[in-house]
Amino acid sequence: MSNGPAGHGARSTIRPYRETRGDARIRTFLHTADGIPLDSVYDPPSAVYDPPSAAHEARAGTSRPASRDVVFVIAHGFTGDVERPHVRRIAGVLRGHGAVVTFSFRGHGRSGGRSTVGDKEVLDLAAAVEWARGLGHARVVTVGFSMGGSVVLRHAALHPGSVDAVVSVSSPARWYYRGTAPMRRLHWLVTRPGGRLVGRYGLRTRIHHRDWDPVPLSPAEAASRIAPTPLLIVHGDRDAYFPLDHPRMLAGAAAGHGELWVEPGMGHAEHAAGDALVARIGDWAAAAAG
C-alpha cells in the first residue's frame, strides 16, 4: 500500500508544534523522515511519579518496580490510535515496568498522512523510538500488535541496534494472506474504494489507494535478521485473523533466536491481550533489554 520503500535509515525530525505537560506527561506531534505528523504521548513510569497502589500492582500482576531506564514504544494495530481505550489500557499496564510512548500511525486518529498498512509505518516507529531515546531512556523496547507487530519486526531488521528488545503480538508472517474471513474483510476495506470510505468515516483510518511498490520486506524475512536483539513472539491459539502457522513461521525464521509464546484461549491483538499477559510481556522485556 505504498508508492515507495520504507525505512532506509533516514532520520526523523522531531518538531513538536503542540505540547502539553502535566505530572511529566507529554503530548505532542512528532514528524517522520518523510514529513508526516504523528500524534504522540509520553507517560512516565507509574512507580516513579504515582503514589504506590496495591490495586495497580494487582492489576499489573507483578511486584517488579518500574524502571527509570526502560521505555516501551507501543505500535498499535490497524484502525487503532493513541486515544483508543485498548491502547491506553496496554500503556497503563506497561507503565508498571517503565515509561511508555504511544503514538497514532499515519492515517490513524489525529496523525497526518494515509495508512500504507505496514509499509511506511516503519518510519513512524523510527520517529517514536528516536523520541524515546531523546527523553533520556537507556533501553528501548518496541511492542507491536497485529499490523504493529509486523512493523516492529521490520523496524528492528531495517534499523539494527536501534532497540534493545522486540515484542511482536498477533503478527502475520507473510503478506496478502486471505485465509480467514476477517482477513478477507480487511482486504476489501483496504483495496476497494467503498472499503476505504468505511475506513475513513467509520474507523477514523485514512487508507492510501496505491499498491505497494516495491513490496516491503516480509515479517518472516525481518524476523530472520533481528538477532542478536532479543525477540519475543506472542500469539493466541484462537486468533481469528492469523492461524498458528504464522507465529511458527516467524519463530522458525528467527532460527532459535526468538522466543515463542502460544497463549491458550487468546484471540487477536490488543483486545485479546489481558492485563496479566501484558504484565508478563513487561517482565520479559525489562529483563531481556537489561
TrEMBL record:
PANTHER family: HYDROLASE, ALPHA/BETA FOLD FAMILY PROTEIN, NON-HEME CHLOROPEROXIDASE
UniProt-listed InterPro entries: AB_hydrolase, AB_hydrolase_1, AB_hydrolase_fold
The entry's keywords: Hydrolase
Protein name: Alpha/beta hydrolase
UniProt keyword Hydrolase present: yes
Source organism, top-level taxon: Bacteria
Domain AB hydrolase-1: 71-171
KW Signal (keyword) present: no
Gene Ontology molecular function: any one: hydrolase activity
